Automatic annotation (TrEMBL):
Membrane topology qualifier: Multi-pass membrane protein
Name of this chain's protein: NOX5 oxidase
Record CDD domains: NOX_Duox_like_FAD_NADP
Molecular-function GO term, any one: superoxide-generating NAD(P)H oxidase activity
EF-hand domain boundaries: 48-83, 147-182
Recorded name of the encoding gene: Nox5
Entry's localization field: Membrane
Main location: membrane
UniProtKB keywords: Calcium, FAD, Flavoprotein, Membrane, Metal-binding, NADP, Oxidoreductase, Transmembrane, Transmembrane helix
Tree of life domain: Eukaryota
Entries under SMART domains matching the protein: EFh (SM00054)
Gene Ontology biological process terms, A to Z: defense response; superoxide anion generation
Positions of transmembrane segments: 220-240, 378-395
GO cellular component: NADPH oxidase complex
Length: 745
């Protein structure tokens, strides 16, 4: 079977390969009768709702037998996979041409011309409304009936050119021609089994060997090289110094010297306040401070490996000594202090075994599978044994104290400062909002002399939830907000779920509902209100403790010229603080003429902020995940429109990954209607913002290509979200030569 005329976009070899693939896939889903029934078709098509599966099935089933044969499938797929624009448009028209009154599907024979057999030959408003309702469900969108009516009206009025009360095939063609690129790419995107997998393209050399990769990771690679080199040097010097005492002892001494350094280095990587201060200095441009958590994990694994090698070498040496002295019992060397064994009181062997056990427990219970599976307490309490580890190291190694003196004193000083702040008393949680997607919004009274930068985070402890647990959360309020701190906490783990549940069922002194007050002075009594589906409470006696603030990579944003902020889901929280801070600075620079009252903003760039342009990209899975932050984004849009009419300093880009795009037959009508209504009302129907929410995932090549074309200065990309998406964005940043920074959360 050859492709339809005019669709010769595939070579003969490619077309033959496609036919073989479809035949193979057909055999894998068809029953013994070599026919596909409706249920098998639904499973293979992977559509969420049955409406489109039934419509496509009816159109594929040319003879109306209730099953699809291989010939029928090949004929339909030839049209969809590499048909011309007219073929695809005719198929789309037939999908929309249903009986609007009963919802009954007409079996349609595909003919060269859209005659009377193709349904009624026109689409009336009820048919369009029915299809758009199923489009909404397919894209996981929920809009009220009046809004669906608005969408139907907008699309129908645009397409019904002659105002006849129905849309003909030619009118639909004219409407779609206004959207370039839609028709030639129109397909059923969910049916991945229709086309053979694209051949994988392998680059000539690994990405880690490219110039752009080294440019974006130069500080981390240089630091890692220095770290490895220093360990090798320390090992070599210690091993050579003890080479005359035997090979095993030389290895043990070399590993021991490396352990002195690495155990002290672990303490350095835990100095959060010192690291936050270093971010404000030029050292931040040289050292990979953003990777201090990853370096801490790396150093922990290195310590465990060195400790195992150190212990193994000593065991081999003890075995040699036992054989030399004619003793058969190795345990005598291990469990009993012996003169010359080393350590305080010649207890090096005993303290070494204890250290080995403690280090093994710390590393084991710090694995993600333990921490994120409801066993955080195991991680917490085993990690607190670092005090015992450092004590045993001082007793075990005669020179460890020299390495540990400075970082140990700084560590103790940081702990004393944190303890003193906590002793000063807890902070009141003055307001709690339970937002969609199980997000808990805490409003906490701001401590005196608490200074932080946009994007910083704190460690939070709420004794009512867990007495000893401290968890890090990004501050989502701007530093310019004087009285309170905001935290937005997504319920993803044991502690965060307990937090949400704790505030979900408070003790209520009265069944009366009261509105929230905007003034902190009025927030002294218990009450709650239900507004827009969000439950809010005012609290008077819930205490919490805050340790911080601590710096993050996002502190670099205000030194960028063109910043691209990318948040995925709850990863928006560090950017919430940043965007608010930008608008506060806008307000401070707003000037007005005393004569004509015309207002404008001064140039934002100064010694603290070099920004010329900000692109904010927020990616969410579905509609409800936008709800909890939309009010702030709406306010930002309004302020920019008021203070910089027509300004493009801050551009927002919203993406909803579950929504189907214009190139999908199950989503094209809905997306066209949403575009038309957004243009008419100047606001998006999904979020209510002026910014139109785009369906699907961002095309990063196009997104970054547009950023590069704007030439607003040096581009830096800041991302907070899943590690998988971070790898994709990092690769594109390397391709375009942008600096990439990832927020760890």
């Amino acid at each position: 079977l050859c492709p339809p005329a005019g669709s010769c976009t595939m070579s003969v070899a490619e077309d033959a390969e496609w036919l073989r693939w479809v035949t193979k896939q057909f055999g894998s889903i068809a029953g013994k009768d070599k026919e596909i029934n409706l249920e098998e078709f639904k499973t293979a098509l992977q559509v969420k709702e049955s409406f489109f599966a039934e419509r496509f099935f009816a159109l594929f089933d040319a003879d109306g037998s209730g099953t699809i044969s291989l010939d029928e499938l090949l004929q339909a797929l030839s049209l969809l996979v590499h048909g011309n624009e007219t073929d695809k448009l005719r198929f789309l028209f037939q999908v929309y041409d249903v009986d609007g009154k009963t919802g009954k599907i007409r079996l349609i024979c595909r003919c060269p011309d859209p005659g009377p057999r193709a349904g009624s030959g026109s689409i009336d408003p009820e048919e369009l409304r029915l299809v758009l309702r199923w489009c909404l469900r397919e894209s996981a969108l929920a809009l009220p009936e009046p809004r669906l009516a608005d969408l139907t009206r907008a699309l129908f009025e645009a397409a019904d050119k002659d105002r006849s009360g129905s849309i003909t095939f030619e009118e639909l063609r004219q409407e779609l021609e206004a959207f370039p690129g839609v028709m030639e790419n129109l397909s059923i995107s969910a049916a991945s089994w229709l086309q053979p997998p694209a051949p994988t393209q392998r680059s000539g050399r690994p990405r880690c060997l490219t110039r752009l990769y080294w440019h974006n990771h130069r500080s981390a690679v240089a630091f890692l090289g220095g770290y490895i080199g220093l360990n090798l040097l320390l090992f070599a010097l210690a091993a050579l110094r003890h080479a005359g005492l035997g090979g095993w002892l030389a290895v043990a001494r070399g590993c021991g010297q490396c352990l002195n350094f690495n155990c002290a280095f672990l303490a350095v990587l835990m100095l959060r306040r010192c690291l936050t201060w270093l971010r404000t200095t030029r050292v931040a441009e040289v050292l990979p401070l953003d990777q201090h958590v990853a370096l801490h994990q790396l150093a922990g694994y290195v310590v465990l490996a060195l400790a195992a090698a150190h212990t193994g070498a000593h065991l081999a040496n003890f075995s040699r000594l036992a054989r030399r002295d004619g003793r058969d019992v190795l345990t005598e060397y291990l469990l009993s202090p012996r003169p010359g064994a080393g350590g305080l009181g010649d207890t090096a062997a005993q303290t070494g075994l204890a250290l080995q056990g403690l280090l093994g427990a710390m590393v084991t219970f710090s694995c993600p599978c333990v921490r994120r599976s409801g066993h955080f307490q195991l991680f917490y309490w085993t990690h607190l044994s670092y005090v015992l580890v450092w004590t045993l190291l001082i007793l075990h190694g005669p020179h460890f104290w020299k390495w540990f003196a400075v970082p140990g004193c700084l560590f103790v000083l940081e702990k004393v400062v944190g303890l003193a702040r906590r002793r000063a008393g807890g902070l009141r949680i003055v307001e709690v909002n339970l937002l969609p997607s199980k997000v808990t919004h805490l409003v906490i009274e701001r401590p005196q002399f608490f200074h932080y930068k946009p994007g910083d985070f704190v460690y939070l402890n709420i004794p009512a939830i867990a007495t000893y647990e401290w968890h890090p959360f990004t501050i989502s309020s701007a530093p310019e907000q004087p009285e309170t701190l905001w935290l937005h906490i997504r319920s993803l783990g044991q502690w965060t779920n307990k937090l949400y549940e704790y505030f979900q069922q408070p003790e209520l002194p009265s069944p009366e509902l009261k509105l929230l007050s905007r003034s902190l002075r009025e927030k002294r009594s218990w009450c709650w209100t239900q507004v827009g589906g969000d439950r809010a409470q005012l609290l008077g006696n819930t205490e919490c403790y805050v340790d911080g603030p601590y710096g993050t990579p996002t502190r670099r944003i205000f030194t960028s010229e063109h910043a691209v902020l990318i948040g995925a889901g709850i990863g928006i929280t560090p950017f919430a603080s940043i965007l608010q801070s930008i608008m506060y600075r806008y307000r401070r620079r707003r000037l007005s003429c005393p004569s004509c009252h015309h207002s404008w903003c001064e140039d934002l760039r100064d010694e603290e902020m070099a920004l010329r342009k900000v692109d904010f990209i927020w990616i969410n899975r579905d509609q409800k995940h936008f709800e909890w932050f939309v009010s702030l984004l709406t306010k930002l849009e309004m302020e920019q429109a008021e203070q910089e009419p027509g300004g493009r300093f801050l551009e927002m880009h919203m993406y909803m990954t579950s929504a189907l795009g214009k190139n999908d037959m199950k989503g094209v009508g809905l997306q066209l209607a949403l575009d038309l209504l957004a243009t008419k009302e100047q606001r998006d129907s999904i979020t209510g913002l002026r910014t139109r929410t785009q369906p699907g995932r961002p095309d990063w090549s196009k997104v970054f290509g547009k950023v590069a074309e704007e030439k607003k200065g040096k581009v830096q990309v800041f991302f907070c979200g899943s590690p998988a998406l971070a790898k994709v964005i990092r690769a594109h940043c390397e391709r375009f030569g942008f600096r990439f920074f990832k927020e760890h959360f």
